[in-house]
Amino acid sequence: MSRRKDWDTYFMDIAYMASTRSQCLRRHVGAVLVQGKKLLGTAYNGAPMGVPDCYEAGCMLAEDYEVRIENGQESVIKKQRCIRTIHAEQNLLLFTDRIDREGSSVYVTDQPCWTCANMLANSGVKEIVYHRPYPKDSEKVSLLMQTRGIIFRPIPSYEPPPNTLTEIIN
Fold first, then answer.
1. Cα–Cα distance for residue pair 56/131, rounded to 1 Å
2. Which of 2, 111, 141, 150 has a beta carbon 3.0–4.6 Å from 117's, enabling a disulfide?
3. Residue 113 counted as an annotated binding residue
4. pLDDT tens string 111-140
5. What pTM value is reported for the model?
C-alpha cells in the first residue's frame, strides 16, 4: 500500500511543476491557487506573452537600494531584479478571478517579494504557503502578512520533485 502525499506536498509539487515552464535565467518560480482542496489556477514567472523572454533576450536588470536600520546601525542593501519578467504570483492574479481568490490559499515555490506580497495582501487570499525563503524582503513581507491577518507559512522540510529545482542567482 502506498502512502498518499499530504495536501501541502501535493500542491507545492504542482507549483514546482509549473515553475519548470519558466525561461527566467535567475530563478524559476511557480504558484498555484487553491480553494479548499480544489486547484483553481497555476502560473510561473516569465516575460509577457509574445515578448522575447530572458532565455532569448537576456535579463533586463534594474538595481534598487534599500536603507535598513538594525540595532541602531544603518546599512544600505543593493538589490537587483529583472524587470522583463512578470512574477509567478502576478501571473496567478492576472489569470484567476477575484471571486475564486476570496478565502483561498496560494502555494508558491519562493517567498513572495515585496511587490507580490502587496498584491497578494489585496487579492482576497487568506493563506500563502511557500518553500524557499527570499531574505531580501522577508521581514517586511512577514510583517505585512501579520498586519493583514493572512496566514504566511513556510514548509522548509519539503522536498521538490526531481528535476524541478533550479539554481538561484541573486
1. 28
2. 141
3. yes
4. 999 999 999 999 999 999 999 998 888 999
5. 0.88
